[in-house]
Amino acid sequence: MQWQSALDPQGPQAAHLHGLFWVFVWVSAVVWVLVMVALLAGLRRRGRAGDPVLPPSPRGERRAGIAVGVAVAATVLIITGLTVFSYARTHVVSAASGEPISIRVRGYQWWWEVTYADPVPSRSFITANEIHIPVGTPVHLDLLAADVIHSFWVPNIAGKQDLIPGRSNELTIQADKPGRYRGQCAEFCGLQHAHMALLVVAEPPAEFERWRQRQLAPSPAPATPEQAAGRQTFEGKACAACHAVRGTSAAGTLGPDLTHVGGREYIAAGLMPTTRGTLAAWIADPQVVKPGNNMPMVPLSPDELRAVSAYLAGLQ
Ligand code: CUA
What we know:
Blueprint: E1 2-3, H1 12-44, H2 58-93, E2 101-108, E3 111-116, E4 125-128, E5 130-134, E6 139-145, E7 150-153, E8 161-163, E9 169-173, E10 179-185, E11 197-203, H3 205-216, H4 225-236, H5 239-242, E12 266-267, E13 272-273, H6 276-284, H7 286-289, H8 302-313
Parallel strand pairs: 1-10, 2-6, 5-11
Antiparallel strand pairs: 2-3, 3-4, 6-9, 7-8, 7-10, 10-11, 12-13
Helix pairs in contact: 1-2, 4-8, 6-8
The structure holds dinuclear copper ion (CUA).
């Protein structure tokens, strides 16, 4: 089961925004109903065609003045009230530093680089498009952009926050229930904006720690001769110029880190589930699958393509 709905909050930040949403909806609904009642009352009092036009009476003028004054005062009060309430709610939601877990998320056209930074370099690792967090723990996100403005939005657990080139924005997220929460870029960022999804996986702390240990390990060695051939092709062709696979000579930084790509649920930022077949389809010609993305087609023979996709699928 995968969630993506702002109306089904699964963490404290999302719950705050959800409350804010319904207060706005109800206040607006009441105002709308009152305006409609006033409008209908006014229409009912309208004279018939052919009635003589009477000059305005001083009493009627005074009443109209009071009505307009009350309406203006009510408008100012309601808008001020909603503004203050909205500010207070979003203030609570805004990031607090010093959370135990800090993750750097950098937006690229059109994928997410996810860095679990640790003061000890050997405990840092980089992954892509999939963020694992322990349940019930606030997680601090440092949001950056490599090219254009993107926006991080995982509706079930937090509000939107922009990723802006040359600037660092912050967001705290927290999930109270284990689950898989889909998120997506919420700021138009080019041709494949709609295909810039991400997945937040909230797990019990012990499971999260196991996942983290797996990510910290270098890529697994090829288990079959075909995978070994795939690794050789990967390191020898242009693949390694853009992608890193820890534990091999591939150390490119332009594209996603593929050290454990086979263990991620999706490839190409949520576009396709990770299987050997989808990996092969992607590598055969990335421009057919996701036109406009930065990965060129690397000419491979059918055997090389099969071997490379087997190798990558095996990088669990
Ligand atoms: Cu990134 Cu839209």
